[in-house]
Amino acid sequence: MKLMGLDYGAATVGVAVSDDLFLTAQAVEVVRRKHETKLRQTYQRIEELIAERGIDALVVGYPKHLDNSVGERAKLSEEFAAALRRRTGLPVVLWDERLTTVMAHRILDAGEVGQEKKRKVVDQIAAAIILESYMDYLKGHEEARKELEDKISERKGTYH
Q1: Strand order in the sheet with 57-62
Q2: What are the phi and psi torsion angles at 20 (to 5°)?
Q3: Given a cut of 90, is residue 34 above it in pLDDT?
Q4: Cα–Cα distance between 152 and 31 in angstroms, integer?
Q5: DSSP assignment of 30-80, as one string?
């Protein structure tokens, strides 16, 4: 089972993928667009990556406020996740992403990455953090992992 983590933003989508054993999440790329509402090419690129990498489910960052309320960015992420579910037929999980961009900046700062390079990769690092967080959750919650596996099996028409 392979997962793809997505950090959905106003002009970019950071992309990361898991290994089959859920040991690591690798940053893959940042899909960029000129306008927030122009998503056709973004969806197409994500669909290409799903096919290329054999992805079974998607994890979309859910940017709740620190007080756990849902704001405009979170609502846009919900819409993005729903569109991905319709377009791909894959299970899509919304996963709390609070402070992941801050953590990504700290990781890049610790590695002494320059500002220009940081701007190019920070979203894919954030996507990897989101995905790692979700994989860690699955490792500690067997029923959640089984539920995800069942959704994937149903989609593929197989049962275990």
Answers
A1: 25-32, 12-18, 3-8, 57-62, 92-96
A2: -65, -25
A3: no
A4: 25
A5: EEE-SSTT--HHHHHHHHHHHHHHT--EEEEEE---TTS---HHHHHHHHH
Its pTM stands at: 0.87
Q: How far is CA 24 from CA 1, 13, 52, in A?
A: 13, 20, 18
What DSSP state is assigned to residue 11? S
Number of C-beta neighbours around residue 102 at 10 A: 11
Which of 158, 145, 154, 159 has the alpha carbon at shortest distance from 3? 145
Mean predicted confidence (pLDDT) in 84-103: 88
Q: What is the DSSP letter of 123?
A: H
pLDDT of residue 94: 96
Q: Which of 63, 56, 4, 58 is nearest to 28 (CA)?
A: 4
C-alpha 81/C-alpha 125 separation (Å) is 19
